Amino acid sequence: MHEEQPPIEVDARGRLCPEPVLMARAALDGVSAGETIKLLATDPHAALDVEVFCARSGHVLEQSEEQKGTWIFWIRKS
Length: 78
What we know:
Blueprint: E1 8-12, H1 19-29, E2 36-41, H2 46-57, E3 60-67, E4 70-76
Parallel strand pairs: 1-2
Antiparallel strand pairs: 2-4, 3-4
C-alpha cells in the first residue's frame, strides 16, 4: 500500500487538538500530490480529528491503527 520511499514522519505525540492536524496539514503542504505522510499522535481525539480533516481536505486516509496508546496514520496527499 505504501510507496517504496519511506513517508515523512510527523511526530505529534504529546500534543492535543488541534496541533496533530495542524502539523499534518503543514507536512502535506510540503509534499507533492500522491506522496504519503505518517502521523503519530497520542491525543485521544486524533482518530476522529484526522478522519474529518482528510474528508474535508480531500486527502486520503490510507490506514490508521493504534499501538500502545499511539495512533499511527498514513495520509496520502490528493
